[in-house]
Design brief:
There is one protein chain. The chain is of the alpha/beta class and about 325 residues long. About 55% of the residues lie in helices and about 15% in strands. The protein has 14 helices and eight strands. The chain has helices at about 15-25, 45, 75-90, 95-100, 105-110, 110-130, 150-155, 155-160, 170-180, 195-210, 230-240, 240-255, 265-295, 315-325, and strands at about 5-10, 30-35, 60, 70-75, 140-145, 185-190, 215-225, 300-305. Strands 3-4-2-5-1-6-7-8 form an eight-stranded mixed beta sheet, sandwiched between helices. α5 packs across α6 (about 110-130), α7 packs parallel to α10 and α11 (about 230-240) packs antiparallel against α13. The two termini are about 15 Å apart. The relative contact order is 0.15.
């Protein structure tokens, strides 16, 4: 069976970007990966600067190092249900009629657990699929999953459909999905930032996954900013050596062409705002250290990705993929 990587995180942490970078990283050395989107946002297409993904698997990138391939798929619950009805009930044109009548929207609305079975089921089918030679089609399947707040419910499809169908095809489909999701080849990875709320949501999410006996993988700390100043440097600037700081600033201003008679006064005016910014920086660093300590207490593999100041474009994705490879993501 291929390996399934489920990527989740609090909104705003960059989980879709990390999922895309992970797909590139795992596709290195000639491997083939499938990147799956289940929320209908077309975020993967935007990241890879391609047209909207259809309900079919499409090659979207070649990975660095060995020419591995990245395929992508945007799973649509309605189309997945039509496939499901055709597979188990051979409805054919009757299924298309149901779509026109709005019956499919009605079914997935009154039974949200069914929707999740359809979405996860399509990804799990890709995990199990083999070619004519008996080899698995994909080495890795990466799912850009819903946010942390609902990831356990999304993945725990057996419980979600228990009240809907205790026997029959839907029940068997849910059991087949759970066998994949709880297998040793599956891992749920959390994406977080070194901020209080994302860290806490990560800790809570992992506790929920463990309680549901779903396999937890690693933690990806995204958008890590460099530590520019230490607390000692800030205190030196703020206490007792302001004149020295002002002279240093005056010299710097002179080199940039802002010198002259008023440069000393201008430098003096800049000292307090710069010191205030430096203090804010060190306070942030202290909070980040606290977040790292809390995440380390989870006892999980942890990976870090630096903040890309100009945003994430296609080149940035490849850069993130290389960073994950260097950290020996397996």
């Amino acid at each position: 069976m291929s390996r399934l990587h489920v990527v989740t995180g609090k909104g705003g942490t960059g989980k879709t970007t990390v999922a895309a970078a992970l797909a590139l990283a795992l596709a290195a050395e000639g491997k083939r990966t499938l990147l799956v989107e289940v929320e209908g946002r077309q975020g993967i297409a935007q990241l890879f600067e391609t047209e909207a993904l259809p309900y079919e698997e499409r090659k979207i990138a070649v990975a660095p190092g060995g020419g591995g391939e990245v395929y992508a798929l945007a799973i649509d619950a309605e189309r997945a249900l039509l496939d499901y009805l055709q597979m188990f009930y051979k409805l054919g044109s009757a299924g298309r009629a149901l779509k026109k009548l709005g019956a499919i929207d009605f079914a997935t609305t009154i039974a949200p657990g069914l929707r999740d079975v359809l979405l996860t089921g399509k990804a799990c089918e890709a995990v199990r699929r083999k070619d004519r030679a008996g080899r698995f089609v994909y080495d890795h399947v990466i799912m850009d999953a819903p946010p942390t707040g609902r990831i356990t419910r999304f993945l725990n499809v057996n419980d979600e459909v228990a009240g809907l169908a205790r026997i029959g095809p839907i029940h068997h489909q849910a059991q087949a999905v759970m066998r994949v999701l709880k297998s040793p080849e599956t891992a749920v990875h959390m994406v977080t930032l070194l901020e209080e709320m994302p860290v806490q949501e990560t800790v809570d999410g992992i506790a929920e996954l463990r309680a549901a006996q779903l396999p937890v993988g690693g933690v990806v700390i995204n958008m890590v900013r460099p530590e520019i100043l230490g607390a000692a440097a800030v205190e030196v600037a703020a206490n007792g050596r302001r004149a020295e700081v002002a002279r240093t600033l005056a010299q710097a201003l002179e080199r940039t062409g802002f010198g002259g008679a008023h440069r000393a006064g201008l430098a003096e005016d800049l000292v307090d705002p710069l010191v205030a910014q430096a203090r804010e920086h060190t306070e942030r660093i202290a909070l980040e250290h606290s977040g790292r300590t809390e995440l380390a207490g989870l006892g999980l593999p942890t990976y870090e990705l630096e903040l890309l100041g100009d945003g994430v474009d296609l080149a940035g994705l490849y850069r993130m993929a290389r960073a994950l490879r260097k950290q020996e993501w397996l």
